[in-house]
Design a protein that fits this description.
alpha+beta; elongated
Length: about 500
């Protein structure tokens, strides 16, 4: 069956190439002098409710253009539907109304071709707003046939690999990326209302830092030096805090040389923001307010439906410490031994979680949390007080230096945001860098390198500061009810396609 489909497709492509060759003999088959002046949804909004008498009286002349998605030839008159970025508009073409020879040419045009049409608006007997064409022309020839109308593009990998076809065929896919844009626009507006300055920091770095992750390596030929694609913009953004930009944010790409899954892509979009004279509690309050407003503005309700579950973004988000979450989701645990390394190591081994010689009690706590708690955090929930061992850039809690003033926001069982009060003590930061560097030398490819310039920046003095990172892709998954991160990336990473 697949071979039959391939043969049929190859035959159609050959036929369309012959049509294109014939067009070339008559001149340029890709004209660029047609100017559209109306979009489908604008016309529906402005004139959809008008009756034909009103339309005739107003004599609304329009020029529309788009991809021909439907073609119905009926002797001396035909109907087509053109799809532009806003939707579809119907066009009626009559042999005796069009210039000489155009209707005969039109019969040879194919679904998928890009067309332009000029004419006046009217309603058909069924009430559909339609352009009565006085002029029609082929603007670009489609050599490949679109997927069948009812089957659509159903192969999931093909939808990711040929996103351009997916967007042509599936309105639901187009809406995902429109909503993605609205989410980012709302986020920008929210931050700018709080007087944040949007900035851009380098994608290539001499020293990878700002997160615990394995970087991608590259090489600068002219300078003959290794460089790394950034894993986070954090350290550069905090350098700007030192420089006096007290509220900064960036929405851009990060790169981490890690696995690919429904929740992970090696290239992903983050919003990171930092503000002076604030702490992690301020960011929890602001994040909650931002998501409340975003849900209402983008989805029209504070109730978010995701994969059969509903989450109320209008309610206050619960806040639990990491240790409280472990106790809550692990009945029978010995709360007196929550920082006993031997006890935690034995617990991890029972769970099948990794235990390495370099892991302290804090790291083992997070392994237990990941295995037993994270997936159960369905409603929006802040988890606070992460161990200092796994938070090399966060400020230690004044009352309990085992933990830091840090939070992560979980929704639908996955992390959406990470924030903390920033460590601004240069000597403490240098010591933590040294510990990370030792782990790196011992073979931990995700450990941070020692960033000497960042320590120098802190030595000039950084005010009390709090920061946050929000995973845009996962947030879009949530708002669009998308089960995989690939559904919300226009061009997700895939293994190379083999072309014969």
């Amino acid at each position: 069956m697949a071979d039959d489909r391939t043969q049929d497709e190859n035959r159609l492509i050959a036929e369309r190439r012959q049509k294109l060759d014939a067009l070339r003999e008559r001149g340029n088959p890709f004209p660029n002098d047609f100017h559209r002046n109306a979009l489908a949804d604008e016309l529906q909004h402005m004139y959809g409710a008008h009756d034909n008498d009103t339309l005739a009286e107003e004599h609304v002349e329009v020029a529309v253009a788009g991809r021909m998605m439907v073609k119905r030839v009926m002797g001396k008159a035909s109907f087509i539907k053109l799809q532009d970025r806003s939707g579809q508009i119907q066009v009626r073409l009559e042999r005796d109304r069009l210039p000489e020879g155009v209707y005969q040419d039109f019969k040879k045009w194919d679904v998928g071709d890009i067309l332009g049409a000029r004419g006046s608006l009217f309603h058909t007997r069924t009430g559909e707003l339609t352009v009565m064409a006085d002029e029609a022309l082929l603007l670009a020839k489609s050599l490949r046939p679109l997927p069948e109308k009812w089957a659509g593009l159903t192969d999931q990998e093909m939808r990711y690999r040929q996103r351009y076809v997916d967007l042509i065929i599936n309105e639901s896919s187009r809406e995902v990326f429109r909503k993605r844009s609205r989410i980012i626009t709302y986020m920008r507006g929210f931050l700018e209302s709080l007087d944040f300055l949007e900035v851009e920091t380098p994608m290539m770095q001499v020293t990878p830092g700002g997160a615990i992750a394995r970087p991608f390596r590259t090489h600068h030929n002219a300078l003959d030096m290794p460089l790394f694609l950034r894993i986070a913009p954090e350290l550069n953004l905090k350098r700007l805090i030192v420089g006096g930009f007290e509220r900064v944010y960036e929405i851009n790409r990060n790169f981490r040389n890690e696995g690919v899954s429904t929740q992970h892509n090696p290239e992903f979009t983050m919003m990171e923001a930092y503000r002076a004279y604030a702490d992690f509690n301020d960011w929890m309050d602001s994040t909650e307010a931002m998501l409340h407003g975003m849900a209402d503005a983008v989805n029209g309700t504070t109730i978010i439906s995701y994969q059969g579950e509903e989450y109320d973004f209008g309610k206050p988000f619960p806040r639990l410490t990491l240790e409280e979450a472990i106790v809550q989701h692990n009945p029978g645990c010995d709360t007196s031994k929550m920082r006993d390394r031997d006890y935690l190591a034995a617990w991890c081994e029972k769970l099948g979680a990794p235990v390495k010689d370099g892991y302290g009690a804090g790291k083992l706590q997070t392994e237990i949390f990941d295995e037993t708690c994270e997936a159960k955090l369905r409603e929006p929930t802040f988890i606070t007080q992460y161990p200092a061992e796994v938070s090399p850039l966060a400020r230690k809690n004044d009352d309990d230096p085992f933990v830091t003033d840090r939070f992560e926001l979980f929704i639908a069982g996955r992390e959406i945001a990470n924030g903390f009060s920033e460590l601004n003590d240069p000597e403490d930061q240098a010591e933590r860098f040294r510990a990370q560097a030792a782990n790196r030398d011992a073979g931990d490819h995700e450990a941070m390198a020692f960033d000497h310039d960042y320590i120098r920046a802190l030595e000039y003095g950084m005010p009390p500061t709090a920061g946050i990172g929000v995973g845009i892709d996962r947030l879009v998954m949530l708002f669009t009810d998308s089960p995989s991160i690939r559904d919300v990336l226009l061009f997700p990473h895939l293994r190379p396609e083999v072309f014969e």
